[in-house]
Amino acid sequence: MNALIRAVRSLRRQPSFFAAAIGALAVGIAAPTALFAVVQATLLRPLPYKDAGDIYAIRTRMTDGRFTIGLVASEELSGLRQETALVAAAVLVVRVEDSINGDGGEARQIITVGVSQGFFELFGTPMARGRAFTPDDHQASPIRSTVLSDRAWRRLFGADPAIVGRTIRLATGGSAVVVGIAPPTFDAPHDTDLWVAEKYPETIGHGYDAYVRLRPGVAPGDVQRALGPMWEALAQKYPDQARNRVFVFRPLLESIVGDLGPIALMAFAATALLLLLAIANVANLLLARSAARARELAVRVAIGANRGHLIKQLLAESSVIALVAAAIGIPLAYAGVRAITIIGGEALPRADGLRFDPGVALFAAAIVGLAGIAVGLLPALTTADARLLSVANEGGRGGTLSPHTRRLLAALVISEVTLAVVLVAGAGRLLLSARNLLAVDPGFRAEGRLIVDVLLPRPPYGTVERGRAFSDEVRAGLKSLGATQVAMATSLPLRREWDSTTFTDIVGRSVEPQFRPNGRLRVVSPDLFDTLGIRVSRGRGFNAEDRADAEPVVMVNEAWVAKFLPSGVDPLRERIDNLFFRRAGNDFASRSAPIIGVVSDVRYTSLDKQAEPVIYLVDAQRDSVRRSYVITTADGHPEALMTGIRAALQRIDPAVPVQFDSMSRVVSSSLVWSRLGVFMMATFGAISLLLSGTGVFGVLAFVAGQRHREMAVRLSLGATRRSVFALVLSMGGWFALTGGAIGLALAWWMGRLMSAYVFEVSASNALVLSGSALVVVAVVLGGAIVPAWRAASVHPSRALRP
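Now predict its structure.
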């Protein structure tokens, strides 16, 4: 305690030094603490499932590069289940939108997931109320069995425990009896409201997501090798669907957090670099301060202090700095977490666990302890060396530092410059990536476009005619409110994908079965392309003449043409088969449809992914109960009509749930991780520049002060002030160039690690590497100017006066 009191008194005598050290270390503590809270909530917090490390989400991919959306076929999963020595359980899931009337009577849109037998057992999750599904629940029955999520139970039914055993009515048709309520922690797939027991026939249709639990100690590679014969058999049976297809096993946690995982880890690594930079900065300040106190400490040794006493005192001072910095840094960390939450918003996976819990507090305490020891240990060991008296003499003779201390100061400054270059380069990469993303033409216009999502109950809207009649009423009602355009699509760009893929054939063009044309099948209204500003590059768009009783027609995008038609072929002369069928006796015969137009590509999945092949159908010829209407107004603010739109749709049919969104918000949300990364790395880069600049300033100011008499002698012997200025500035230049060179090598290596998470920015990007080095060198030289100017301004007569 006495050592701490003496440390506080000593530091109070130099308030500017105390403030600089605290400020640098506070930022160094705040950044990793805030990012650890994110990493712990998203990546380190255990999933609430038994042996979650054995659970994998399953998709599929084509090894020959063919397009597939990656869903699983039930026949494929059946073959996987048979590997009982490796696989403990495997289940299919199908996510659909539905609606239900809650206790308030208003229709509400919900997410329903159909699951195959053994779903809850795979996750090892008991029900909070009622029971899980039994094998009997998966048998064909007019009344299906359902389990409510805790969220849906509270939101839709007011947490009424009597709901278990009651029958509810779903908009997709049929009734379901509630057999159980899941615990609050169960959320697979994410945001599910109801799980429904289903029995899926074995087909090769790829319409399912899937989960698998491997037996303990089994790796996905073991399963892949065992499935070779299964894939060969399926390829013989279904060459178009199964040849060159394999499973993709993704750990459950990774499938939940998605792109956030690597982004959070990169940001956390950046904060570790920032902490090292802050430690180097404060250690530099303490080392310089300790060197200046060499005589004082030598006197202590002379009157009986031993090496342990000196180390204890110097570590006490660094501990005081760390504790005060923690008192500032931890509130800063909390503010940082709030900022991340605001920027990330609802897109942050597992955000419910993002808080300052005991784990974060323990990490912060560890950081504080590490920082307190790290910033003080090197100066303490150096200054309290057994040769302290000789060091003091070296430091006192002629006002020069000992070579040992000078080398340590130089090494710390160079490390600061190196780390600053790496951090600034990381920020530059993300800024350039964000710029590239913003420069991408998404293929549509987003500003001033309101989205109205509706889900039509299957009865009575399960026919093309009834669905078209509903759209006609919607269009008339909304235009009476002031809407200028009202268009419809089953899926809109950069939102959740609801459209499936389909295999087709081009009339008169035979290909190997495994190379059959396929693509997303989207249903749109004739005015969608004009409403979203999607260009029709060839032919014509859909129009009012494309009715249900007319010849079926299709449109395709440019990606479909490029992938499936030979170069130079006119797509408008081609016809597509196996999309439309007509009854021929007891069977259905395919009816081919001409390609009437080609539209420009739209980036539906994300801005950084190329457009998929797409086949468009007109809503008058293909029914769909899920519809997203896009609305514009003359003033560009259709959101002002939301209240009127809701009332108008309620008048048309109160059983149709309504949800609103905007295309601008959709585009903005698609860039949330890019914005979050830029925000964090730009902040870290700016702080690193400040720390490196102040670090060089502090060291050169100290060195110049120690060499005050030397500079005076130089000037008195004829040296010009310009040469003295250049001498001190060259020291800063040496720091900058050496640290910059090392930093460039590390920045290039870091760029290779980041290459998968930035858009069109290579590891060797000249703008990033040269720009970051030049910025840091400029800041470092700027920090050297004032000490150099002071050294050149010395008055020899005053400096040499006894």
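Residues 307-344 form the longest helix (38 residues).
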